[in-house]
Amino acid sequence: MSDVYVVGADLIRFGRYPDRTPAQLGAEAALLALDDAGLTVRDLDIVYASSTFNAASMIGQQILKQIGQTGIPCVNVSNACASGATAFREAFVAIKSGLYDVALAVGAEKNPKGLLGGPIGDGPSPEGLFGSGTTPAMFAEAGMIHAGKYGTTMEQFAQVAVKNHHHSTMNSKAMYQRETPLEEVLASEMIATPLTKLMCSANVDGAAAAILVSEKKARELGLSRAVRVRGSALASDPYEPRNPVLLDADSVTRLAVSKAYEMAGVGPNDLDLVELHDCFATAEILHYENLGLCGDGEAGALIDSGATALGGRIPVNVSGGLLSKGHPIGATGIANIVEIVMHLRGEAGARQVQGARLGLAHVLGFSSVAGVAGVHILEKA
Predict the structure, then answer these.
(1) Mind listing the pLDDT tens digit for each residue in 279-317?
(2) Beta strand pairing status for 227-236 and 46-50?
(3) pLDDT tens-digit profile of 201-236?
(4) Separation of alpha carbons 183 and 186, rounded Å
(5) Hey, which residues does 365 pair with through a beta bridge?
(6) pLDDT value at position 119?
(7) Can you list the residues of the chain whose pLDDT is less than 70?
(8) 119-144 pLDDT per residue, tens
(9) Which of 30, 32, 251, 253 would you call most buried, defined as having the most Cβ atoms within 10 angstroms of its Cβ?
């Protein structure tokens, strides 16, 4: 089977676009990615398009109406916050199978304002012991369980927000580009203990896209800026006995990343950077351990050490992450991959991770009743 390469990747600036449709946002991202690859819509063999809040609108076909309708297959994907990673993985599988040489994966979203992921309509969840159906409450609960087990402090959770907001000051496509000192993070509005407002992801609109090609096509185009997909994994919830943190963000992520490491033939110590699903500051702490960046119970010490900041041993979310770059649900998974691609090419500007050759992109999707995790490992060609 052919190796799969990313030869084009880009995103629009995340923010609010009241006068534009999701398809218009997706079309802009798709054209940016095609330009980046030196290709046109006539070169595409298949399209995978992701969205959550516009899932029923045939977003992919709407995007093709904006950039050119050539009659190629178009598949629409919705998988909560893992929608973009799912579209990218389906494009990877399509190329890997040998059926196609050039695929577009594009994610576009216009998020509703206010709280995303509201309470379950017909009463409390039958799973878990303490939680509610709202995502801030679920991830606050998971953080408090971690704190109770390992002594993780509110300041350590808050340091995640300080770090990621600092990183986003170097990203012109991030929603927010300003420093948020620890005192400001701790003093911002309390949403669900220990999560203050600045420890919750930015609710924004956005779009991102990537062009995936076969090895044959990559060699035709030239490998100088190509990035190889070494590992691709998607996992759904494994069965677990009842425990206090169901829905469990940990088990589904650990299942996905173990499969991705196995496919890539690498481990966490081989990585140069990570973009992970920091939907809330507590989540980033949990995922340090879930992705194997440190041992269980060591995540608080890891953020304290500065290892996950730009210039540290394993920089995490140098884009600014979901906390500051923003979290347009259906586009986030591809945007995380775009960030890794930029660093592997050496094109990330002021936030460049020097010498980066191997990076990991992770997302986690939750509905009120189920979870999914996607992990991709990318390598400089």
Answers:
(1) 999 999 999 999 999 999 999 999 999 999 999 999 999
(2) unpaired
(3) 999 999 999 999 999 999 999 999 999 999 999 999
(4) 5
(5) 372
(6) 47
(7) 115-133, 242-247, 368-369
(8) 445 555 544 445 566 788 889 988 99
(9) 30
Quote the radius of gyration of the chain (alpha carbons, Å): 19
Q: How far apart are CA 214 and CA 141, in angstroms?
A: 43
| Residue 331 and residue 206 in contact, taking contact as beta carbons nearer than 8 Å | yes
Rounded CA separation 280/174 (Å)? 17
**What is the DSSP pairing of strand 74-77 with strand 46-50?**
parallel
